[in-house]
Every structure is written in C-alpha cells, then in structure tokens.
Design goal:
By secondary structure, this protein is mainly alpha-helical. The chain is 71% helix and 3% strand. A two-stranded antiparallel ribbon has the order 1-2. Strand 1 and strand 2 form a beta hairpin. The protein has one domain: ABC transporter involved in vitamin B12 uptake, BtuC (Orthogonal Bundle). The relative contact order is 0.20. The protein is built from 11 helices and 2 strands; from the N terminus they run H-H-H-H-E-E-H-H-H-H-H-H-H.
C-alpha cells in the first residue's frame, strides 16, 4: 500500500476523531463534574447541525451558522439542566432517573426536530474558503479536514488551559470532588453546574455544525453519534478528559484503517476495541485516579 494512501487515511481518521472528541469531551465534562450521565448528549449534536442549517439559510454565512449551532445547543442544554436535571439531583437512585429523563429528552428533541424541519434530509456546503484541497507531494488533503483537525487541537489546548490555569478551572476541579465544600466557600455551585452543562452541550452542538458539511442532517443522527461517544468515554475512562482525547483518536484511526483493510468488519471494530480494553482495564485506559487531571 502506498505511503500517500496511508497518510490520507490517517488524516481522515484524525479529522473524524476530533469531531468525535468534541462530542465525547462534553459528555465527559458533564459526567466528571456534575455526575450526570447525559444519555441525550448526541441530541445536542443533532440540534447544532439543524441550528447551523437554519442560520446559514437566513444569513448565508457558514461561520454564523456554526456559531448559532454551538450557542443554540448550549442554551437549550442549560434550560434543560435548570428546569429538569437539577430537580432530580440528590434523590435516591438518581442514576436511574438521569437515564430515564435524558432518554425522554432524546424522544422529545427528535420529535421537535421533525415538527420544525421535517423528516427530510438536509445538507450544508463547505465554506468557500475551505472547499479546496492542499497537496503536499503525492498526498492531497481536503482543506476542510485540516481545519477540523486544527480546530480540535485549539479546543484541546484551550480546555486544558481553562481547567488547569484559571480560577474557574480550579472551582470546576474542586466541585468534581466535593460540591458541598465548594458551596460552603461561597461559590454558587448550581450556577457553575448550569454553565458547565451549557458549555458541554455547546461543544456537542459545535461538533454537529462542523460535521454537517461531511454528513447529512436528519432526525436520529443524535442516537448514532452518542453510541460512538459512549464507546470513547468508556475506553478513555469515565469522567477523564485526556482519556476521551486518546480514545477518540484511537477509534478514529481504527475506523479509518478498518474500512481500508477490513471493510466487511468495519462497523464492529469500535465495539471490538472497547471489549478488548475492558477485558484488561475494566475502568478504561485512564481512570480518574490515574489521569493527569481529574477532568
């Protein structure tokens, strides 16, 4: 197999991994800090794509659409956290309530999308500035894919800086360990959790907006992406930010090269990797205790 094909597959897998990381990292943040298992997180990915589609139709600008996708998903995430998820916090069997409640969100959001935009598939074109390709020797790389990779790296570095070097990051780290103690120090923990939920769902919405030019937009896409995201979160270690990054890259590359070498088994490779990891590391590759950071 030629070197240029290998490089092309690697970069393709990396661009998919960065989109997957944007979704999975939001899910990881919510679980790692708020202890909320948001089963509907993929629905915010879908909402981001639809909001982006609507904004592009109104303003004819891809970047306004991407911003609308992130902000719209984040705001709806905050509303659902304040109105519903916060109300079941601290109850007995809270985990079961979370799963049932967030599963209900999936059904409601899917029906809402069908009611507003209809069941037909929607498409978004790549921005003209990123519609071309970059040729380096024998390798041709779509410019949009390179942009997604760079965007993912920027978000990784930004998230690391915020969590490790800012006061808000320290509050988040402390809240993930002992919310009662943080509240006694005068911090509005409820507000922090709502903002965190909004940021996490906004990351999912941004991923949906960025993925829209590469995939079709349709009801039900949230369920598809949440499965891959859960695989990433489980492999990386529940609640571990850096584990999610590593697992997203691993799954992205396994799928990219699996389609090339084992196309008949490609749809099962992600599950196979998860099973192998869990056999040897039942809590994932990076547990919270072993990670460099608790998030």
């Amino acid at each position: 197999m030629s070197f240029d094909v290998l490089i092309s597959q690697f970069l393709g897998g990396l661009s998919v991994a960065m989109l997957l990381f944007l979704v999975a990292s939001g899910l990881t943040l919510i679980f790692g800090v708020a202890k909320v298992f948001n089963f509907a997180h993929g629905s915010f990915y879908m909402l981001g794509a639809y909001f982006s589609f609507q904004a592009i139709n109104l303003f004819n600008n891809f970047w306004i659409g991407a911003l609308a996708g992130a902000i719209g998903a984040g705001l709806i995430g905050m509303v659902l956290e304040i109105c519903f998820i916060r109300r079941i916090s601290g109850r007995e069997e809270e985990g079961a309530f979370q799963i049932l409640l967030t599963y209900a969100f999936i059904l409601i959001i899917d029906d809402g999308v069908k009611f507003i935009w209809g069941p037909a598939y929607k498409t978004i074109s790549k921005p003209e500035s990123l519609a071309g390709a970059l040729t380096v020797g024998p390798v041709t790389i779509p410019t949009y894919n390179l942009f997604i990779i760079l965007l993912g790296l920027v978000i990784v570095v930004t998230a690391w800086y915020v969590l490790s070097r800012t006061r808000m990051g320290k509050i988040i780290q402390a809240a993930s360990t002992d919310t009662q103690m943080v509240g006694m120090l005068g911090v509005n923990v409820s507000l922090v959790m709502s903002l965190l939920f909004g940021v996490a769902t906004a990351m999912g919405g941004l991923a949906g907006a960025m993925a829209a030019p590469l995939r079709t937009i349709a009801p039900g896409t949230g369920v598809e992406i949440i499965i891959d995201s859960l695989i990433v979160v489980v492999i990386g270690g529940l609640g571990n930010f850096w584990g999610a990054l590593f697992a997203a890259i691993l799954i992205g590359e396994v799928n990219a090269f699996g389609i090339l070498w084992l196309p008949q088994w490609a749809s099962l490779l992600s599950f196979a990797v998860m099973i192998v990891v869990l056999i040897f590391k039942s809590k994932g590759l990076f547990t919270r205790e072993q990670g460099r950071k608790k998030i």
